[in-house]
Amino acid sequence: MSSPTQADDALLSASFSLYSNPGAYALLLGAGVSASSGILTAWPLFMDLVGQVATLEGEEPEDPEAWYLDKFGVAPTYEGVLEKLGPTQHERQRLLRGYFERSAEDIEADEKLPTPAHRAIARLVRAGAVRVIVTLNFDHLIEQAIRDEGLEPTIVASPADITGMAPLHTLDCCVVHLHGDYLDPTSMRNTVDELGEYDPATQNLLERILQDYGLIVAGWSAAYDPVLRKAIAEHYSTRFTMTWIERSEAKEDAAQLRILKKGVAVTADADTAFGHLADGVAALTARQSRHPLTIPVAVETAKRELAGRPVAIGLHDRLRQELGRLHDRPEFYVYTQKDPGPYEELVERVEEATLLPAALVATLAYWGSPETDRWWLSEVPRFATGVDGSGSVRLLNLRVVSGAMLFYAAGIAAVAAQRYDLLGQLFAARRSRGQGRAFETLGASLRSSSTYYEDASDRDTRLHGKLAPLLQDVLKIGHEPLEDAWQAFELLRMTWVATQHQSFDELRDEYWRADDKVLSTEELARATEEPTDTFDDVRATEHRFAFEARDRHLGRLGRLARVGRPHILASEREMRDDWAPNPVVRRLIDDVQLDGNASPLVTTGLFRKSGDALLAMQAVSAVLGATATDLIEKQLPPGGGAMPWEIWLDSGLPPVRESPGDR
Q1: What residues contact 574, with CB distance under 8 A and at least 6 apart?
Q2: Which of 64, 191, 344, 409 is the most buried (most CB within 10 A)?
């Protein structure tokens, strides 16, 4: 018996074979695959039918098969038993339908439905990993599961179906009912006599499958089908590794056949095994089976070439090649397809395909120069622009997922390298808002939480979860410096968006007038040496109104930034007059206050004036603080308790602090 680890390894290997050789493997499914569906499988069904014959004869034998032989002088067969129960073909079909088709009781009991194994197999079919399925079961559960995936299989249930059928390799999916189909009782075979030989057309089809395809066997004991055993022994090619799935130790016939064909045994139930196979193929498809060393090797090569004196022509060509591959991704064009598959899987494949280009772009943004910036800067808005066409907006905008990853990878790397001139170019790059519509800047439109699908539970944290590990490996600056660079990028992006807004100058002037009003009421209070109680109340009211008006103007300025839920650690104290932003925000503000217009943020052209940048940063911080306050209040435990005083805005969770014992 294989251990869980051995079974997992064997299934992982089989998944890779299915993924690497799409359509090269056929499935051979026995009764064990349908056992949990509530439908009687071949032998129990046969014995039940024989039992019904005995009931008609007024008897209840303990051994229906022996009773039948003794009663009628011949061994029972499906054809003979069914003739006794239903003289006409119509009556026999009606009898069998009761075993396989759902009644009101079955619907209430949720029975006679495809099992998880059938569903997983259907996923493999939809992925193109499996195209030929040989089933020994009479039911239609595998066809139903495949149809539920939006595909229509070709069904072969009798020799007549084989005549004139297209070559197997041209069919998207073919289901071969080797032992027949309940809708055609004359095709059903299960006894030793019935399985003594196959029709020549069926035998030829079986041999073609065994010669041309690998085999994954599940739920078949191999005990009662000598013709099938012989066909596998004589015609199965060992160039494909056979995988044999059985929930318990294999019977002797099955074990001998597997050993003869050098197959791999997997001890697992069909639901678990096919679930692992389907998940494995999906994961490999999402990763595009890229070798894990590809990205680190590409990045190290890029760094080495950038460190050389000559222009890194090889790096330029490699980057163009990877960006070209990304542009050609089939996921960007699925909007034309009737059934492109689950959206989440499409996004995962796009994300995985973008990682290598994003790593190269981050490398160039950190260690590159204005000359190398030209190699990729124009590509970011191209990816950040959805496809013009008709169809689902989400599908048309799949390319924007890549655009957002490239934008953030380049921007965070530029911040980490203090290349604020590059950051300004990245923010100001424009993308089309759609055919015949205006353009918008990337800084204003590519927010991390708005570029992914709306119904994802990790919408606000997804981009950080995908990119942060990559950037940590590429930039080699450590976890905390990377987090600081990410937060600084978000704050600078929002500040830049606010200062670029057409309403900024007007709102800025209104804020300063309100600020003057606050100062004048404070000066009046200091100048009044002996105020009366009435005058003191009026003065306090005017000061409060002026203070509130200034806060409203600050909030209006902050809302120009389209804050959303960025990856920033914020505190509710930011909304008060003595707000204390997190260290990243405080450091940026202090630098601008100290350097004024000599600040690199101004001299590089990122901001026009230090005063505008400083005011916009304070306005954005106020909005971040208000957002943090709302999220922190939601963290209040039922019945009361301590609340966190700072929170990550994207996840809505407080930071995890290391205790001294964890260090």
Answers
A1: 580, 581, 621, 622, 624, 625, 628
A2: 409
Tokens of 357: 């280009």
CA–CA gap between residue 89 and residue 78 (Å, rounded): 13
What the block records as the tokens of 483 is: 């987090």
User: 185: how many CB neighbours lie within 10 A of its CB?
Assistant: 21
Name the DSSP class of 402: H
* pLDDT of amino acid 116: 87
Give the position of tokens 């209430």.
108
Q: Does residue 205 sit in helix, strand or coil? A: helix
d(CA 399, CA 286): 16
Q: To the nearest whole percent, how much of the chain has pLDDT over 70?
A: 80
Q: How many CA atoms lie within 13 A of 23 on its CB side?
A: 10
- Both tokens assigned to 288: 């595009």
Dist CA 555 CA 575 (whole Å): 10
Bigger pLDDT: 449 vs 22: 22
Running DSSP on this structure, what letter comes out for residue 187? G
**540 vs 544: CA distance, rounded Å:** 6
> Sign of the CA dihedral 346, 347, 352, 357?
positive
Secondary structure class of 441 (helix, strand, coil): strand
The span from the CA of 658 to the CA of 49, in Å, is 68
In the chain, how long is the greatest CA-to-CA distance? 126
Q: What is the pTM of this model?
A: 0.61
Name residue, tokens 């009931």: 55
For residue 194, the one-letter residue type is E
Cross-strand partners of 155:
175
Where do we find the tokens 């399925």?
133
What is the rounded CA–CA span in Å between residue 168 and residue 209? 8
The alpha carbon of residue 325 and the mean position of all alpha carbons in its chain are separated, in whole angstroms, by 20
Contact, 150 vs 50, CB < 8 A?
no
Looking at the predicted structure, is the pLDDT value of residue 142 above 60?
A: yes
Q: Please, what is the angle between helix 270-287 and helix 343-367, to 10°?
A: 40
Instruction: Extract the tokens encoding 481.
Output: 């410096």
Measured CA to CA, the distance from residue 633 to residue 121 in angstroms comes to: 47
Give Cβ neighbours of residue 129 (< 8 Å, ≥ 6 apart).
18, 19, 22, 23, 25, 281
pLDDT in tens, 517-565: 888 877 766 655 555 454 466 667 777 788 888 888 888 998 998 888 8
Distance, in Å, from the CA atom of 597 to the CA atom of 609, rounded to the nearest integer, reads 6
What are the domain boundaries of the chain? 4-37+113-281, 43-108, 290-475, 504-662
Q: Which two tokens stand for residue 364?
A: 């160039």
Question: 4-37+113-281: CATH homologous superfamily?
Answer: TPP-binding domain (3.40.50.1220)
Helix/strand/coil percent split, the chain, to 5: 60, 5, 35
Closest CA to 55 of 70, 67, 43: 67
Q: Looking at residues 154-183, what average pLDDT do you find?
A: 88
